[in-house]
Design a protein that fits this description.
Chain lengths: 236, 517
C-alpha cells in the first residue's frame, strides 16, 4: 500500500535529514516508526503525505508515485501532524464539513461518520464552538475525526497520542486496529514505546536520518523489550 | 516598524531579498516624503498668499494626528491585546507595566515613522516659504517625536473600548471589524463633506485650523510652541504628551491582564446537536474557508478592503456634485470634460492597491499543511484565493461604474471603460499578488500585522500595483494628443492579456512553487 524507495531529503543544502530510506507498508499493517527527536520521522511522514517536496527517491501509494499523481494519492491518505494547527476561525463542524467537501464525502457518509466519531471521542456538543476555543486535546480529537470521515485506506499519524486523554487514546487504538482489520494500513511515529510494542505488527527505527532496523515487531525486539532494543540501537 | 520577515531560499538569496526589501521600504518612504513635501509646499504657498503661512505646521500636525488616530484604532487588537505570544510573555519574570510599555512602544515605533515621513518634509517646506529662524527648527525637531503620542493614546483608548465591547459577542472579530470600518468610513465621509477646492484652499484651511484648535487644543499649543517660540507652550506640549503616555501605560498596566483574559475567554455554548450536513464542491469549500478567513481578521480587512470602501464612498459623493466641482476637488480645474476618461483610471489605480492575495498564502501560516495534504490541485487553491479577492473588489467596481455613470453622465464608450478597465485590473492584481506571495512567503509569523502590513510581499504588491495603475494616468497626461478612449481601451486589452499570461504562469510554475513551500 505504501512503498518508500531510497527516499532522501536535505534542507537548504545542509546534512541529509533522511538518508536513503526504504520501507514497505502493506494492507493490514500497523507500522510504528520510532526514533529520537530530529531523527527524520516527521520529514519522512510529511513527504509520504505530499506536504514536503523532495528530489531523491520516490514514494508510491498503491503503486502510484506521489510525485506523478499527488491528488490521486492524497485521496487515499489521511494525515494528522504532530501539532494539530487547524483553522481557528472555523467551528468544529465547519472544519469537518470543509474536509468532507475537499475529500468529496457524500452527504450520507459524512453525517453518519461525523456523528459516529464525534460521539466516540465525546466532542459532539463542542462542534458548534470555534476551534480557537478548543484545548490541545480537543483539537487533536477533531483532527482525528477529520482524518477518519473520508474513510482513508492509509493513515499517516505523527505522534497521535500526544494530548489525548486516556479514554480517547484507547478509542484511537481501537479504531486503528479496526481500520487495519478492514484492509487499511497505518504508518505512525511515536515516542511511547509501550504503545508501539503492543499495537504494532511492524516497527521501523530511524537514527540520524538512516533506517537502522525494520520488520515485524517480534523479530525486531526478539526476547527483549522494545525499549531495550531501542536504547541499544541508538547508543551504538 | 517590526520588520521581522522570513525569507525562503539559501542564506545568500535571503540576504539579497533582505536588501531588496529595505530598498523597497526606502523607495516607499521617499515617495511618501516627496508627496508630503509637494502637498505642504502647495498648501503653504496658498496660505502665504493670504498671509497665513504659519497655519501650515499646525495643519500638517493635525493631519498626522488624525491619520495616526484612525490607523491605530484597529491595531490595538493584535499589538496591545490578544497578541499571539501573550502567554509566553506573561509567564516571564517581567513586570506587567514593562510588558505594556513594550507593546505601546511597538505601536509608537510604527506611528513615529509615519509622523517623521509627513512632518519633516512639511517642516522643510514651511522653512522655505516662511524662512523662520533657528529656534523653529530646534523646537520642531524636539516636538516631532512627541506628536504621535497623544493621538496614539486616544486611539488606543477607543480601540480598547471596541475590543472590550466586541469581546462580549460570539463573533467578536466581526463586531470589531464593523465598528472599525464604521469609524473610518464616518471619518472619510465627514472629510469629503468639508470640501476642499484649490481656489479656496487658503480660506478653507484657515477655517479648518479654527476647527482643529477647538477640537484638539494640543494643535494650537504646538503652533504657539513652534511658530512663536513660546517656551511655556513648548514645555507644556512636552509635558502633556509624556504625562499622557506614562499615565496611560500605568492605567492599562492595571487592567492589562483583566482585559486580555476577557478577550481570550472564548464564547462556548457546547450544546451542538448533529443535524443535516450539506455537501459542496472542493472549490466552494476552499472559497468559503478563504472568505471566512478574510473577514475574521480586522487587520487584513482594514488594510486591504478599505480601498474598495473608499471607492464606493467616492462614487456616492459624486452623485451630489457637478463635473466642474469634482474637477476642482481633484485639483484639476478645466478637466471636467476629461473626467469620463480620468475616473476609470483613478478607480483602476485604487483597485491596483487592493492587495488581498499578496498575503493570502502567508496567512495560511501553520495551517498550510491542511491545504498541502488535501487532494486538490494547487490551481483550485489559487482560484479560491483569487475568487475572494474578486468578491471584494468587483462589486465595488460595479457600484462605482453605476454611480459614476449616473453622476457624471458618462457616454456609452466611457461607461464600457468604466466597468472593463477596473475589472481587468482586479484580475491582474489578484493573480500578480498570489505570484508575489508565492515568491516571497512568510509562514512563520506570530502577528498578522507582520504579514499584512510589514512583509516584503505586500510591499512589492503595493508598489507594483501603484506603478501598474499609474501607467494609463501618465500616458493620458503625457500624450494629450491621443484620444483617451484609445489609451484606456488599449490599457484594458493589455492588462487583460498580461493577466492571462500571469495566470498561465501561476497554474504551471506557481503549482511547483506552492508545493516547495
Amino acid at each position: 500500500m505504501l512503498s518508500i524507495q531510497n527516499f532522501s531529503k536535505s534542507y537548504k543544502g545542509d546534512k541529509k535529514a533522511v538518508d536513503n530510506l526504504s520501507l514497505e507498508v502493506i494492507a493490514g499493517d500497523i507500522y510504528g516508526f520510532i526514533g529520537h527527536n530530529g531523527a527524520g520521522k516527521t520529514t519522512t511522514l510529511r513527504a509520504v503525505v505530499g506536504v514536503l517536496d523532495f528530489e531523491e527517491g520516490d514514494i508510491y501509494i498503491d503503486g502510484v508515485s506521489i510525485k506523478n499523481d499527488p491528488v490521486g494519492c492524497k485521496k487515499k491518505i489521511a494525515y494528522i501532524p504532530d501539532n494539530p494547527d487547524l483553522y481557528e476561525h472555523l467551528t468544529g463542524i465547519q472544519y469537518l464539513s470543509f474536509i468532507g467537501d475537499i475529500y468529496e464525502v457524500s452527504k450520507a457518509d459524512r453525517e453518519l461518520l461525523t456523528k459516529k466519531y464525534a460521539d466516540l471521542f465525546e466532542i459532539t456538543q463542542n462542534l458548534g464552538d470555534n476551534i480557537s476555543s478548543y484545548s490541545h486535546g480537543m483539537k487533536q480529537k477533531l483532527a482525528i475525526i477529520a482524518a477518519l470521515i473520508h474513510k482513508p485506506r492509509l493513515l499517516i499519524l505523527d505522534e497521535p497520542f500526544v494530548g489525548l486523554d486516556p479514554k480517547a487514546a484507547f478509542t484511537l487504538k481501537t479504531i486503528m486496529t479496526e481500520l487495519c482489520g478492514e484492509g487499511g494500513a497505518i504508518f505512525f511515529s511515536t515516542h511511547v514505546l509501550d504503545v508501539a510494542e503492543k499495537l504494532c505488527n511492524k516497527i521501523a527505527i530511524i537514527k540520524g536520518g538512516k533506517l537502522i532496523e525494520s520488520g515485524s515487531t517480534e523479530v525486531v525486539k526478539g526476547n527483549q523489550s522494545l525499549e531495550d532494543v531501542f536504547m541499544e540501537l541508538i547508543e551504538e | 516598524m517590526d520588520l521581522h520577515i522570513s525569507l525562503g531560499g539559501g542564506k545568500k538569496k535571503a540576504k539579497k531579498k533582505g536588501i531588496l526589501f529595505y530598498l523597497g521600504v526606502i523607495l516607499m518612504i521617499l515617495l511618501l516624503s516627496f508627496s508630503s513635501f509637494t502637498y505642504s509646499f502647495m498648501l503653504g504657498t496658498s496660505l502665504n498668499m493670504i498671509g497665513m503661512a504659519e497655519l501650515l505646521p499646525e495643519l500638517m500636525m493635525a493631519v498626522t494626528c488624525v491619520v495616526t488616530l484612525m490607523t491605530t484604532i484597529y491595531k490595538v487588537k493584535g499589538i496591545l491585546f490578544d497578541f499571539k505570544d501573550y502567554d509566553m510573555v506573561m509567564s516571564l519574570p517581567v513586570k506587567t507595566s514593562h510588558i505594556v510599555s513594550s507593546r505601546l512602544l511597538l505601536l509608537y515605533t510604527i506611528n513615529i515613522l509615519f509622523t517623521l515621513i509627513i512632518m519633516i518634509p512639511s517642516s522643510i517646506a514651511y522653512g522655505i516659504i516662511a524662512r523662520p529662524s533657528l529656534p523653529y527648527y530646534i523646537l520642531s525637531l524636539i516636538t516631532v517625536v512627541l506628536i504621535p503620542l497623544v493621538p496614539m493614546i486616544i486611539a488606543t483608548f477607543i480601540g480598547t473600548i471596541i475590543v472590550v465591547i466586541s469581546a462580549r459577542f460570539k463573533r467578536s472579530n466581526l463586531v470589531n471589524l464593523i465598528i472599525s470600518l464604521g469609524l473610518l468610513s464616518g471619518f472619510m465621509i465627514s472629510s469629503f463633506t468639508m470640501g476642499d477646492t484649490a481656489e479656496q484652499m487658503g480660506e478653507i484651511s484657515a477655517a479648518l485650523t479654527k476647527q482643529v484648535d477647538s477640537i484638539y487644543p494640543l494643535a494650537r499649543m504646538y503652533k504657539v510652541a513652534v511658530i512663536h517660540y513660546d517656551l511655556i507652550a513648548s514645555l507644556l506640549f512636552i509635558a502633556v504628551s509624556l504625562f499622557s503616555f506614562l499615565a496611560f501605560s500605568m492605567l492599562v498596566g492595571l487592567k492589562f491582564k483583566a482585559i486580555n483574559t476577557s478577550i481570550s475567554a472564548k464564547h462556548t455554548k457546547s450544546n451542538y446537536k448533529m443535524g443535516s450536513l450539506n455537501q459542496t464542491s472542493p472549490f466552494m469549500a476552499l472559497y468559503r474557508k478563504e472568505l471566512k478567513r478574510y473577514f475574521s481578521s480586522t487587520i487584513y480587512v482594514m488594510n486591504t478592503g478599505i480601498g474598495a470602501v473608499m471607492m464606493v464612498i467616492a462614487a456616492v459623493a459624486v452623485l451630489f456634485v457637478s463635473k466642474e466641482q469634482l474637477a476642482m476637488a481633484l485639483e484639476m480645474p478645466g478637466m471636467a470634460s476629461m473626467l469620463g476618461a480620468i475616473v476609470p483610471v483613478v478607480v483602476s489605480l485604487l483597485v491596483s492597491m487592493i492587495y488581498i492575495t499578496a498575503c493570502s498564502i502567508s496567512l495560511e501560516g501553520k495551517n498550510l499543511w491542511i491545504l498541502k495534504a488535501a487532494p486538490v490541485s494547487a490551481k483550485t487553491i489559487f482560484n479560491s484565493k483569487i475568487a475572494v479577492s474578486l468578491t471584494i473588489v468587483i462589486p465595488a467596481v460595479i457600484i462605482d461604474g453605476i454611480l459614476f455613470g449616473i453622476g457624471l453622465n458618462l457616454t456609452w464608450q466611457e461607461l464600457v471603460i468604466q466597468f472593463t478597465m477596473p475589472i481587468a485590473y482586479s484580475f491582474l492584481i489578484s493573480i500578480l499578488g498570489l505570484i508575489i506571495n508565492l515568491k516571497l512567503p512568510n509562514l512563520n509569523w506570530t502577528s498578522e500585522i507582520t504579514v499584512v502590513k510589514q512583509s516584503f510581499s505586500t510591499l512589492v504588491a503595493m508598489l507594483g500595483g501603484m506603478i501598474l495603475g499609474a501607467i494609463p494616468l501618465i500616458l493620458i497626461i503625457t500624450l494629450p494628443g491621443i484620444n483617451t478612449f484609445i489609451i484606456n481601451g488599449l490599457t484594458t486589452i493589455i492588462v487583460s492579456l498580461v493577466s492571462v499570461l500571469l495566470y498561465h504562469f501561476l497554474t504551471t510554475k506557481g503549482e511547483k512553487m506552492f508545493m516547495a513551500l
